[in-house]
């Protein structure tokens, strides 16, 4: 539609859409805007590709893939003996480096170039309505104006607890845990969420002696309780220590080692300590004060990802705190891109109803997540406890995943558990959780059932192939029917 005016060194350039933050989400907003015929610029202060490509999804999954593959192979009779040795840690780290492109972003910059999205390097800051300044590395400043929309896609960063002297300890956050170049002898992991569970799994298998310090009752507290229980059990069997109900009260580094003091009075020594204690929005140095929004806050948006109270500002991905997951942020990006384009074209009415083209409805109803631990955890929709807290009536259908023929063939002594939640009033599936080897690949069927609001009666006709682990769907339906009295 519009041409970019001028070059990078110009004082001011105008675009239809200006995106701040070139993580997976920002890239997708720019791509969708461009696909709709709008001009788009994107501002990035670090690496194009964002946290996901360099310090989160890609490196963590590259570290975990050999761990899970070895664990799976060790459960297959006839193959077990061939995979008894330790992992080749140097090769695993090199494989991880390959997946991060050695922390270089030329490939992703090339893709943005190829689709006509202009990349600006530097810190993007909002400077009043529809204006963004870019502070370059040498102190130069450029001004970008947006004709239609500014999309904030600046993601999140790890938060550290407020412990005295913690900076001197040089703690790991998710960044170091995914990019370390050597295996620490002893690794303490503080936290019980997804990052803690995945990174404890990876580093224990790579040769560290891992101790996980969980403040609450167990691992993965946002998922069904059996998920955290099975993952903790497997971590312990792998040699890690998992301690619950314990908090760190202080940390010091002396002579190379870190000593943590715990609230039960005990001390724990480690070579490195990872704090996997949650995320904060990257909105503190974003110029939000120039438009009356509190710096450092998560940005609250409507279902088209437009910031409440604004007609030009969008916030997409982690920064809006709806679902801190790459695939869900990219989904939001597709919705936001379509909404920006429709509004730019003057479309009188957007499709913002439930499941409409301009409403990120799945954020409320069908967020899928796979935790790449051993066993894997895969979930979509609310947990039973969340449904109860929300006052929703659900029927809980549990099934021991080891009871299906495909599970036994997949792994000797298969251990796993599955749960389906049904809204009995409609009746449709509203959520599911699978824990067990290979569980991640079971999830998309559940996501389709939830997002599609497929009636349980119709699911009887979606016949799972024999002998796959997906036969758990048949067992779910039988258990549900039997619970109804047949
Ligand atoms: C260890 C770990 C593993 C994870 N694994 C998974 C996984 O397996 N699957 C999954 O779905 N999710 C995973 N996640 C979550 C996932 O990483 C995030 O949900 C995803 O990165 C969010 O994408 P985003 O584009 O919103 O933000 P980010 O990826 O954080 O990108 C934001 C970008 O904005 C840039 N930026 C910030 N402020 C400015 C500014 N003012 N000016 C210019 N640029 C700026 C940043 O440099 C960054 O490049 C993981 C997270 C962690 C920590
Ligand atoms: N495979 C995946 O999909 C994947 C992998 C990693 C991360 N992620 C996403 O990234 C986000 C961040 O993950 P995360 O694990 O860092 O955050 P999280 O919020 O999931 O977990 C943080 C945990 O740390 C605990 N905690 C907070 N402060 C603490 C303290 N001072 N001491 C002890 N414990 C403390 C919290 O109780 C919580 O259980 C999540 O939303 C997650 O979904 C996804």
UniProtKB/TrEMBL annotation:
Keywords: FAD, Flavoprotein, NAD, Oxidoreductase. Residues 367-473 form the Pyridine nucleotide-disulphide oxidoreductase dimerisation domain. The lineage of its organism: Bacteria, Bacillati, Actinomycetota, Actinomycetes, Kitasatosporales. One of its GO terms (molecular function) is oxidoreductase activity. It comes from Streptomyces monticola. It is an enzyme of class 1 (oxidoreductase). Signal peptide: none annotated. This is Dihydrolipoyl dehydrogenase family protein. Residues 15-327 form the FAD/NAD(P)-binding domain.
């Amino acid at each position: 539609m519009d041409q970019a005016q001028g070059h990078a060194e110009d004082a001011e350039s105008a675009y239809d859409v200006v995106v701040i933050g070139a993580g997976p989400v920002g890239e997708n907003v720019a791509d969708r805007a461009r696909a709709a015929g709008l001009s788009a610029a994107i501002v990035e202060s670090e690496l194009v590709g964002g946290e996901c490509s360099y310090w989160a999804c890609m490196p963590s999954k590259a570290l975990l893939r050999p761990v899970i593959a070895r664990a799976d192979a060790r459960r297959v009779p006839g193959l077990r003996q061939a995979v008894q040795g330790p992992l080749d840690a140097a090769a695993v780290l090199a494989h991880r480096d390959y997946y991060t492109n050695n922390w270089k972003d030329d490939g992703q910059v090339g893709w943005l170039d190829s689709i006509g999205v202009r990349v600006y390097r530097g810190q993007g800051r909002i400077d009043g309505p529809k204006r963004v300044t870019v502070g370059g590395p040498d102190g130069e400043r450029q001004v970008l104006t947006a004709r239609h929309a500014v999309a904030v896609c600046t993601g999140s960063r790890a938060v550290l607890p407020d412990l005295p002297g913690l900076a001197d300890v040089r703690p790991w956050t998710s960044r170091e845990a995914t990019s370390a170049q050597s295996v620490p002898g002893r690794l303490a992991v503080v936290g019980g969420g997804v990052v803690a569970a995945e990174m404890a799994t990876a580093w224990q298998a790579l040769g560290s002696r891992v101790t996980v310090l969980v403040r609450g009752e167990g691992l993965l507290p946002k998922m069904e309780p059996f998920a955290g229980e099975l993952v903790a059990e497997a971590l312990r069997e792998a040699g890690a220590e998992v301690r619950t109900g314990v908090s760190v009260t202080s940390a010091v580094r002396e002579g190379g080692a870190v000593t943590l003091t715990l609230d039960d009075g005990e001390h724990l020594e480690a070579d490195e300590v990872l704090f996997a204690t949650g995320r904060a929005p990257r909105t503190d140095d974003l110029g939000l004060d120039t438009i009356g929004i509190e710096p450092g806050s998560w940005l609250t948006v409507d279902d088209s990802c437009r910031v409440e109270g604004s007609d030009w500002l969008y916030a997409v991905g982690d920064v809006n705190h709806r679902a801190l997951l790459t695939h869900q942020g990219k989904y939001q990006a597709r919705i936001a891109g379509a909404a920006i384009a429709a509004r730019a074209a003057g479309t009188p009415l957007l499709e913002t109803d439930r499941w409409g083209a301009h409403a990120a409805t799945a954020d409320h109803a069908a967020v899928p997540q796979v935790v790449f631990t051993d066993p894997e955890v895969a979930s979509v929709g609310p947990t039973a406890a969340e449904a109860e807290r929300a006052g929703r009536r659900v029927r809980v259908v549990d099934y021991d995943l080891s009871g299906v023929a495909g599970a036994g063939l997949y792994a000797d002594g298969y251990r796993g558990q599955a749960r389906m939640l049904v809204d009995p009033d409609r009746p449709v599936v509203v959520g599911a959780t699978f824990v067990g080897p290979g569980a991640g690949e079971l999830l998309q069927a559940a996501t389709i059932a939830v997002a599609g609001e497929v009636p349980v009666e119709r699911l009887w006709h979606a016949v799972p192939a024999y002998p796959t682990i997906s036969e758990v769907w048949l067992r779910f339906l039988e258990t549900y029917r039997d619970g109804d009295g047949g």
